[in-house]
Structure formats: structure tokens, C-alpha cells
Amino acid sequence: MGLRRVALAAGAALVLAGSGACTEAVGRPSIADATRLVIGVKADQPGLGLRTEDGDFAGFDVDVALYIAEELGVPRSGVEFVGVTSQEREDVLIDGDVDLVLATYSITQLRKTVVAFGGPYYVARQDILVRAGDTTVRSVADLEGKLLCQGAGSNSANRVIEERGVDAVRIERPSYSDCIDLLAEGEVDAVSTDDLILAGYLEAAPESFHLVNAPFTSEKYGVGIAKEDIAGCEAVNRAITRMYQDGTAAWLLRKWFGDSGLDVNTSVPQFEGCT
Amino acid sequence: MKRSTEAPEIADRLATRAADRARRRMGLPPWVGRPGTRGRLWLLSALCLVLTGVLFAVTGSAISRAREGLEVIGRGEGPKVVATADLYFALSDMDAQMANVLLMGSEHSLGDGREYALIRYEQRRAAATDALLHAAQLAAGDPVEEENVRAVMEGMNRYENLVAQARLLNDEAGRPAGEPPDEVVELYRRAGELMRQDILPKAYNLTLDSGATVRSTYEENSAAASVGTALVAAAATALFAALIALQLFLRKRFRRRYNLPLAAATAGVVVLGLGAIGMLEQQAALLRTAKEDGLASVLSLSRAHAISTGMNADQSRWLMDPGRAHTYEQNFLEDAETVLFLVPENGHLPGDLESYTGEVAKAVPDPTAYPGKTLGLLGEEIRPGGVEGREEVQRETLRFYSAYLEADQEMRKLAEEGRIGAAVDAHMSGQDSVEDVFDRYERSLVQLTALHRNTFDTAVAEAEAGLRGWDAALLGSCLGFAALVVLGVRPRLAEYR
Fold first, then answer.
1. Segments of chain A assigned to CATH 3.40.190.10
2. What was the ipTM of the complex prediction?
3. CB 3.0-4.6 Å disulfide test: which of A172, B90, B246, B485 passes with B44?
4. Chain B residues lying within 8 Å of A24, measured CB to CB
5. pLDDT at A26
6. CA separation for the pair B159, B422 (Å, rounded)
7. Residue in chain B nearest A243 by alpha carbon
8. For residue A6, what pLDDT band results from cuts at 50, 70 and 90?
9. How far apart are CA B243 and CA B265, in angstroms?
């Protein structure tokens, strides 16, 4: 009797010890091992992430996402894109609705407290777009007294007016697309935001606008990823390194912004680090 | 169980003889299938001996795995990663020294003097080459990283070409400080851009990737270590259970209340098991300290140091190249925020250099009482605990950082008033100049890094000491357990002869 009971107890102890060792590995799996990926991109940003008529997504961010997915071992057929707005980006990552976010997503110290960032895959800079033929604006300082349009929720005009002390007149519209329309119609004098965003609009109507090419801030476009997935973040960084080494990054920048007159930087950006 | 236990010997003997005949026909070893008390005794004893062997094997492999992990983190990859962290600093300090040389023009005795700047430039170049060597070793076998190392080497060559030309032209021109000729500014602008936009990012990414290598090694190791510890616990529990079973069996069948050798073996297994588990967990804890409070902090602070050096170079560039002053000032601010990012209580982030400097001054007197959040490479290292004196060094580092920013504001004001000569002086000459305060800030930052490096070394040494002697102790005790088991059951088995 005693023997059997002791054997039973020993067996139970073994099972307990074994299961104790395994529970630590439970959690969300790393995207480094994923076979399918859901990636959040912008749906309304020409040149970066735009939903096309047949429901697909197209743009620089989309192509970068596909390259990264492939480097992670996920084929085109395993990637599902979903449109995300600027406000949703943190939530969809925290809730696990998407695996990666590439949506003109600037890395900031504040955001880094809730999500992790691979990359940046590009360092955009705040620049100025004016109507073609307007030669009065050559730098930020020349915006003095001009009508400057910014999209709702953006901080770009403040950066000119408050942080640079340039006395421009702020006009606010729901989105940058509306600002671009106003600029085309001559209702405002300038639109100032990330150069890649401006270049995207410019590519759509190259004859109408002119990019000033006087950058004055850095916006580090990162790949948003769940905060605890450090291995995944490191894998994304390796993919981005490859993308610059094999010339794909330079090719994609030319493909999407080549005609805009924007000075693109084709060497790999300084990464933010995953921890 | 049968009730035949009242007269075990007679029944057993009859059954044993029958079984012996059967076994001889089938050519099986003498104890297989031996029914009755004797067979069970054989079986239990053999089980105890086998489990002793298992305990020896799993504990031995857990110890050797701990030793391997310690070797990689403590002596292999870890120190190499620290060495690559110096790469960024060495490169950006090369650039800062060169900016100083060019800015001095013909006034060779400004600040610490041209000779000093040139010597330091050479030292940094040697350090950068060393660090690249370590990085190449860490990258071996990884084509992506090897390519990165090569790109940094090529970039260094191109950079040196450009600054050599700039220096030559600058020496020929012989202008006073702060007024280098245009072609020198143009050449140095290209060199600086190459350094900032191409070489330094790659160098930084190299360090990050070496850090990633250590992290994954550490994680694989600690996962394997916890499985190892669990196996040791399981093996010790099983042996303990088998020894107890054996003693219960002897007590029931042979009416012996105690069996001293077996009791001693049982106690020994408990001591060895608990001791081994405790030691393995201690190892894991020390390795965690070495990695998190040691290595990770050393890496963050080295990056803060590197980026601060870049800030210092951007001050020289700002003075030298008014055409791009805005860009250099913006770079300076962004770098400063990477080092220390403050989130004031009201959520209004400081947007320009002046308000940032003001906010830092607010946080400095007592960083732990700052009502907002302190983030960034240095900011996140400001935390209580650690070795004695660390908090004091943290506070001092912050104090000098703030003083450095204030000296910077002073210099910028002078330059914006058009007093370029006075601004260059404020930058380079005498006590409380930007360079002087920067030196003090840099020294305390290096001291803080050294404290964490010390934490790393101490934890590694302690872990190594903790492993010492375990191989012999394990072998000795397992042999001892086996001997005690044999000693304990032999007289009982002898009753059957």
C-alpha cells in the first residue's frame, strides 16, 4: 500500500515540477515566429498608405511592411492589411488586434512607454509645401505672416508658431487632404508637416505644388509592435537593416517619392532599440 | 496485497525456487520477476540506485549549463558588447575633436589646445578600430551584421579623407578662431553629414544588435536553467520518495523500525536537493543582476555618453556654420531628449531648447521628487538602489548635465547677439565654459557607467564563486548515497542466503 502511494506522490511531484517549468513560456507568441501577420497601415495617406478602389492598400509603408513580413518568413498571401487612424495605433497593438503598425507612426519617448518600436525605417522631417511658382518661402522663417494650414489633432503649426517663434496664421481643417485642397485653391499659403506626407500629395499633382526642402524636425517612422515582444522587434530591425543593405529601401523611396523633388536619405536610420 | 506476510520465508522460498527454474530456462538475470519480499527488495534497491544516477546526471548538467551561461554572459559576449558600445562614443568624439581643431583656426592654444585635440582624435580612432574588431567577432557568421561592420569601416575611411582635406585647407588659410574659410566649412559639412547620417547610425545599430545577441543568449539560458532546476527538483523528489518507500517496506516486512544508512541517505538527498536548487536559483538571480543592473545599464549609459558627445559636436557646428544653425540646434535638442526626456506633470512637453533647459533645471535638485516623468537613456537610469554611492553619482551627473545646458544657452545668446568671438570663448575657454562643464558632466557619466560595470563584474565573480566545488560535492554525495543504499539493504538481502 505504502509503496504505491509513495510512487503516486513522486509521480505527482514530477508532473508539478515539469509544469512549473513550462508555464513561464506562455504568453503572446513573438511575431518572429509568425506564419500570418495582421498589419495596420494608414488608409487615407497618398504615397504612404492608401486604400485603393479594389480594397487593397498601396504606398511606401505598405511596401515596407511587405518586405519586413517576407524577411520574417511570412509570404504575401499571409499578410492581412487593416486601415488604422492615428488615434487607434496604440490601442490596436495593446489589444493584439494587429501584429505590426506601419502608419506614419513617429517614435516618441512617451509612446515608447506603452508600445515597442522596430526601426525607424525612415526619418521624415517636417517640411513646407507651397503652390508651384511661389518663391517667397525658402525656410521656416519666411512663413511670417502667411496662412498656414494644419490637420486636426496635429501639432505641426504649433511647432512653427510657438516653438520657432514664427508669426504665421494658423488655419485648421479636419485633415491634411483638406489643407492641400485649400492650398491648391489659394485659400492658404502653405502646409507644413512630415516631408514624406507632403511628397505623397505632391506626387499626385506634381505641377500644382512645390516642396521647399527646408527640413526642421525629425519624425522617426517606427514599426509599432507589442511592448513585450522584444525578439520580434529585433527581428524587424534586422529586416530593416537588410532592406537598406540590398537597395530595396532606396528603390522604394524612389518609387513613391522620386518625382517630388524631395531629398531622400537612403542610408539606414539609427534604430531606437527594443528595450 | 496478500495476507501471506504472516509467514513470509516459507512461501517465498517455494515461489522463488519455481521462478529460478523458469528464469534459467529463459536466460534472464537473477532478480527479474522474482516474486515476494526478496524480489521487491531487489527492485526497490535498484530503483534507488538508478534514481541516484539520474539525480547525478540532471544536477551535473544543470550545473554545467549554468557555468556555460555564465561564461557567455560574463566572459564572452557580454564584455564584447560593452566594447562595441564604445564604438559610437569613439567615432563621435573623433568628430567632436576635429570640429574643435577646425574651429580653432590659427589660435592653437584655445581651450585645451590643438595638440590635445589632435592626440585625443588619434586615441579615439584607435579605440574605434578596436571596437570594430570586437563587433566583427560578434557578427561572425551573420551576413547582415558583417556587412554592417564593413560599411562602418568604409565610412571611416571616407570620413578621414574628407577631414584631412579640410584640415589642410584650414591650416593654409590661417584664419582666426570661429571663421574658417568657406571651402573648409563645406568639406567639414560633408564629413559631419557622413558621420552623423551614415556612420554613426550604423555603429549604433551594431551595438544594438550585439545587445540583442546577449539578450537572446540570456533568455535561452534562463529558460533552460529553469527547466534544469525543475528537473533537479523532480529527480531529488523521486529519489527521496524511493528511499522512503524502501524504508517503509523494510519496516513492514522485516519489522525493523530504523535503518540508519538509509535514513542518512534520505537526509543527504534532502540537503543536496535543496542546496542544488538554492544554488541554481542564486545563479539565475546573479546572472539577472549582471545583465539588467550591469550590462543593460552600461549599454544605456554608453549610448547616453555617445549621444552627448554628438551634442557637443553640434554646438561647434552651430557656431561654425550659421547657414545650418537651425538644423544643428534641432539635432542638439533631439539628442538631448534622447538622453533625458522630461514629461512635466501638466503634460506640456518642452518644445524648444530654452524651455527644455528650464525643465531640466527644475528636475535636477531632487530627481526622485520631480513630479513628472523622467525618461530617456539617462533618465531611466536614475533610480534608487544599487551599490553605495550610486544615487549620489546619479544626482551629480544630472546636476552637471543641467549646468551644461545652461552654459549652452549662454553661448547661444552671445552668438545671436553677433558676438561670435565671445561665444567661441564661452564655448571653449576657461572655467564654466561649455567645454569645461561638459567635461565634468562626461566624467560623472563615465563614473556612473563604471559603477554599473562594477555591478556586472561583481555579480559574475560571485556567480563563479558560487559554482566552485559543486562538481566534487555532487559526485561525492551521489557516490555516498549509493554506498549507503547498499549498506542499508545488504544485511536484509543476506537473510535469504
1. 31-123+220-257, 125-211
2. 0.80
3. B246
4. 223, 226
5. 44
6. 30
7. B144
8. very low
9. 8
| Chain A (202-241) residues lying within 8 Å, Cβ to Cβ, of chain B | 215-218, 230-231, 234, 237-238, 241
Cα(B160)–Cα(B139) distance, rounded to whole angstroms?
24
Phi-psi region of A52 (alpha: psi -120 to 50; beta: other; left: phi over 0): beta
- Alpha carbon distance A118, A275 (integer Å): 10
Dihedral of the CA atoms A216, A217, A221, A222 (nearest 10)?
160
Neighbouring CB atoms inside 10 A of A200's CB total 26
Phi, psi torsion values for A125, nearest 5 degrees: -135, 150
Tracing cell 511587405 back to the chain, one arrives at A66
Identity (one letter) of the amino acid at A27? G
Tell me the average pLDDT across B192-218: 86
**Other Cβ atoms closer than 10 A to B168:** 12
First-to-final CA distance of chain B: 25
CATH for the stretch A31-123+220-257: 3.40.190.10
Which distant-in-sequence residues (6+ apart) come within 8 Å of A248 by Cβ? A67, A242
Q: pLDDT for B139-181, tens place per residue?
A: 888 888 889 899 999 999 999 999 999 988 888 877 777 777 8
Burial level of B374, CB count in 10 A (0-12/13-18/19+)? Answer: buried
Amino acid (1-letter code) at residue B285? A
CATH H-level superfamily of A125-211: Periplasmic binding protein-like II (3.40.190.10)
Q: Which three cell numbers stand for residue B73?
A: 554572459
Q: For chain B, what are the domain ranges? A: 42-494
Grid coordinates given for B99: 570640429
Instruction: With CB atoms and an 8 Å threshold, state whether A14 touches B245.
Output: no
Q: How far is A8 from chain B (nearest CA, A)?
A: 10
